[in-house]
C-alpha cells in the first residue's frame, strides 16, 4: 500500500434502528453510506443492523449473521459506489458463538472484524468477548476500532496508539448512567475526549438514538481531534443525523507535546503492572 494520505473525510452516522428489523436496518445503513459520497470513512452505530435490547437467545439467533453475510455485502456494495471505508456494528455468528462485532468494510469487501472486548451488562448473556484490538492499514492511515464500553478502558486506546493507530472508530450505543447527571455531554463524549487527548489520536463515535424497550439512547455522535476537541458534533440526543469533518491525520502522528514531553515515550509501564 502506498503512503497514507494526510487527510481523511470522516462521517459519523447516527441512526434510529428498529429492533429486529434486520433487512430494513440494513437498507437504511447502506443508504446512509451512499448519502456521503465524499467520505473516506463512514462510521455506523453498534449493532446497527439489529437493535440492542435483546431479551432471548432466539432473538439474538434471528438477528445474527456471519461476518461475510448480507449486511457486509450491502455495505461493500455501497462502499464500492462511493469509495469509502465503513465501520459498523452487527451481531456476528461464528459457528455456535455470537459476538457484538464491528465490520471493517472497504470497496473491495470485508477487511476485518472487531469483536467487542469489553461487553456491557446484559450483553454478557448473549455475546462472547473478543480477544484483540486491531490496527488496520487503510488508504488514509491506520485505523483502530473499539465498541462503546471499550472506551471506558484506557489501556485499549493506549494499545492502539502504540500500534500506530491514527483514528479510532467507535460504533456505540450509549445509554444513560446513574446517577442523573447535569445537562450536557453524555459520559461517552467525555470518554472520547479523554482518550483522544491522552493518546493524541482522532476518535470518531457513531451512536444511535431513539427508545427501545424502555432504554433511551443518548445520541451525541462526535468526532474528537488529538487535542481532545470535538470537531464534528456532538450531534443532537434524538433522531437520525450525520456529521462530516476533514481530519488532518498528521496531527495524530505527532506525539510530542513539548521538547521534553511525549505522550507514549513518557509512559512508565514497569510501574503500572497488570493487576
Report on the structure:
This protein is of the alpha/beta class. The chain has 7 helices and 16 strands. The mean pLDDT is 95. It is globular. Strands 5-4-3-2-1-14 form a 6-stranded mixed β-sheet. Strands 6-7-8-9-12-13 form a 6-stranded mixed β-sheet, with helices on one face. Strands 10-11 form a two-stranded antiparallel sheet. A hairpin with a 2-residue loop joins β3 and β4.
Q: How do the strands of the widest beta sheet line up side by side? A: 5-4-3-2-1-14
Shape: globular
Indicate the mean pLDDT.
Answer: 95
**Oligomeric category:** single chain
Low-confidence stretches: none
Could you tell me the radius of gyration in angstroms?
A: 18 Å
Tally the beta strands.
16
Strand/helix succession: EHEHHEEEHEEHEHEEEEEEEEH
How far apart lie the N and C ends?
39 Å
What is the helix tally? 7
Q: Major sheet: size, sense and barrel closure?
A: 6 strands, mixed
Portion of residues in helices? Answer: 10-25%
Strand content: 25-35%
Instruction: Find the structural class using helix and strand composition.
Output: alpha/beta
Amino acid at each position: 500500500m502506498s503512503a497514507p494520505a494526510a487527510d481523511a473525510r470522516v462521517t459519523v452516522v447516527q441512526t434510529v434502528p428498529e429492533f429486529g428489523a434486520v433487512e430494513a436496518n440494513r437498507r437504511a445503513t447502506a443508504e446512509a453510506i451512499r448519502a456521503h459520497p465524499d467520505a473516506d470513512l463512514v462510521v455506523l452505530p453498534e449493532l446497527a443492523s439489529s437493535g440492542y435490547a435483546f431479551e432471548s437467545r432466539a432473538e439474538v439467533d434471528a438477528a445474527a449473521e456471519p461476518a461475510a453475510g448480507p449486511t457486509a455485502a450491502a455495505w461493500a456494495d455501497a462502499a464500492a459506489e462511493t469509495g469509502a471505508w465503513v465501520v459498523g456494528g452487527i451481531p456476528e455468528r461464528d459457528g455456535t458463538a455470537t459476538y457484538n462485532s464491528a465490520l471493517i468494510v472497504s470497496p473491495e469487501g470485508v477487511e476485518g472484524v472487531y469483536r467487542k472486548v469489553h461487553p456491557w451488562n446484559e450483553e454478557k448473556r448473549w455475546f462472547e468477548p473478543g480477544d484483540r484490538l486491531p490496527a488496520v492499514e487503510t488508504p488514509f492511515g491506520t485505523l483502530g476500532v473499539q465498541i462503546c464500553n471499550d472506551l471506558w478502558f484506557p489501556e485499549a486506546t493506549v494499545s492502539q496508539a502504540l500500534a500506530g493507530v491514527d483514528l479510532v472508530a467507535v460504533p456505540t450505543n450509549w445509554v444513560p448512567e446513574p446517577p442523573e447527571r447535569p445537562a450536557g455531554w453524555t459520559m461517552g463524549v467525555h470518554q472520547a475526549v479523554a482518550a483522544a487527548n491522552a493518546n493524541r489520536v482522532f476518535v470518531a463515535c457513531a451512536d444511535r438514538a431513539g427508545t427501545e424497550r424502555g432504554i433511551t439512547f443518548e445520541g451525541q455522535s462526535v468526532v474528537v481531534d488529538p487535542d481532545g476537541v470535538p470537531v464534528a458534533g456532538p450531534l443532537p440526543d434524538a433522531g437520525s443525523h450525520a456529521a462530516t469533518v476533514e481530519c488532518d491525520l498528521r496531527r495524530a502522528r505527532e506525539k510530542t507535546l513539548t521538547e521534553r514531553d511525549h505522550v507514549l515515550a513518557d509512559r512508565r509501564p514497569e510501574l503500572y503492572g497488570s493487576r
